[in-house]
């Protein structure tokens, strides 16, 4: 409660400044889902050879409250995620525009952003199951004509060995291009992150190894009358070391037998088609591979949904879908989860 009061006081103090325009907004979201997991998934996760049906009814963690403000060439946003269990910062940035150039300082989405409509799992949006996404990061971003951009973020560090000594000397970099019109939308994003094991500061066995991780994503949308189509293809090396969220293991692999490292390659893709007047359906797929594994580790998900407006700014999104773990890197089946239910949302 104290955190919420501090947030409200902060936003009120912001409005006291001489901003030309200030807009408060919020979104309350509830998830009401039935999850049916088969025997294979329950055996894989908990060692229980039985099916299970569960109700998952909760306030979503991506419910939010924020304020947008503007003054001449300066735009800003402060947004917090609010749920019964926590309060977290989602966006906090200021963006200054001068001619064709704009400069952003703060925390917001990277170039690997959300394009899907899947609402299960707190608006999962195919994240981890086909969509490359590395969250909201602190950054300094430079944009040209709102199309070309490059952003510099704190490096992402993940010590896969647990011997310490991992360090970074350059920022995590993400560059890309975005184009949109009435019928078309294109986006390309590429990012790179470099870490290094310092043999003088790590624990035995000492390593002097540079860890390079990178990711590339191509996205296209096509709007044909009342039909929307979306497709995305992504590829990367050691994307788990870049900061991507993936359901498959995607970090570089350390071989203790000969003290070497093997890169893990990951491909992912998604496709979605539908109409706001009818329904939307989508599919996501992801696969990771490494020379030390027996097989590919892959997974997929599908969904079908329809948004139904109840009153102004209040709607529900009934959805059915499946999460399929397929097979892991040891060629073992991981089982499936079927779900059905809805998201309930009120925008303010």
Please give a structural write-up.
- The chain is mainly beta and 348 residues long.
- The chain has one domain (32-57, 109-135, 152-347).
- It is built from 4 helices and 21 strands.
- The protein has helices at residues 2-15, 39-46, 120-123, 239-242, and strands at 21-37, 52-59, 64-71, 74-82, 87-98, 101-109, 136-144, 148-153, 166-167, 172-180, 184-197, 209-224, 227-237, 253-255, 260-262, 265-274, 280-289, 297-305, 308-311, 314-324, 336-347.
- The chain has a 16-stranded antiparallel beta barrel. A two-stranded antiparallel sheet has the order 14-15.
- A hairpin with a 2-residue loop joins strand 12 and strand 13 (227-237).
- The protein is globular.
- The relative contact order is 0.14.
- The model has no long low-confidence stretch (mean pLDDT 91).
Feature tags:
mainly beta; 21 strands; 9% helix
Count of beta strands: 21
Head-to-tail CA distance between termini: 20 Å
Order of helix and strand elements from N to C terminus = HEHEEEEEHEEEEEEEHEEEEEEEE
Number of domains: 1
Q: Kindly report the spatial arrangement of strands forming the biggest sheet.
A: 1-3-4-5-6-7-8-10-11-12-13-16-17-18-20-21
Structural class: mainly beta
What is the rounded Rg? 22 Å
**CA-based shape:** globular
Helical segment count: 4
Percentage beta strand: over 45%
What would you say about this model in short?
The chain is 9% helix and 55% strand.
